[in-house]
Amino acid sequence: MYQRISALPDNVDELANPELAALTKIWLEQKMEMEARGDAYQEFLTKLRRQWAIETGMIERLYTWDRGVTEVLIEKGIDATLIA
Fold first, then answer.
1. Which has the least CB within 10 A, 8, 26, 37, 81?
2. How far apart are CA 39 and CA 52, in angstroms?
3. pTM for the full predicted model
């Protein structure tokens, strides 16, 4: 049965994980480095989107590929010359 989402507790700051702040800092540094190298950040995002799309298809059982095929598709995209 549907239940309304309750408000956050008063001690919400105590629920934060301090490791996430360090991870956020590292991610922002890596992102800035990729952006400084031209289109490295956009290439990263393209590969990440491919990975999400492939994994979503696998979860939904649209196809079953081994890890090697998945990695090639993430890296190269769908390229007819790679499909044999």
1. 81
2. 20
3. 0.61
pLDDT digits (tens, 9 = 90+) for 13-69: 888 888 998 999 999 999 999 999 999 999 999 999 988 888 887 777 777 777 787
User: 3-state DSSP call for residue 3?
Assistant: coil
Secondary structure in 3-state letters for 17-72: CHHHHHHHHHHHHHHHHHHHCCCHHHHHHHHHHHHHHHHHHHHCCCCCCCHHHHHH
Give CA–CA dist 56/26, Å, rounded. 27
Q: For the chain, which residues make up each domain, given as ranges?
A: 38-84
CA proximity to 41, closest of 54, 52, 30: 30
Cα 4 from chain centroid (whole Å): 29
